[in-house]
Amino acid sequence: MNNTIVKDEVKIENLIENLGILVDRALKK
User: Fold this and answer.
1) Per-residue pLDDT in tens (0 to 9) along the chain, 29 residues
2) What is the CA radius of gyration of the chain?
């Protein structure tokens, strides 16, 4: 159970990072 929770947290962190990168690119354009 704990492993799946940790994996989900990592996925969320990655999604947030990707969103930040996309926003950064959009603002620079």
Assistant:
1) 678 878 999 999 999 999 999 999 999 97
2) 13
* Residue 12 DSSP code: H
What CA–CA distance (Å, rounded) separates 4 from 12?
A: 12
How would you class 6 by CB atoms within 10 Å of its CB: exposed for 0-12, middle for 13-18, buried for 19 or more? Answer: exposed
Residue pointed to by tokens 């990072």:
17
Distance, CA of 8 to chain centre: 11
* CA distances for 26 relative to 19, 21, 22, angstroms: 10, 9, 6
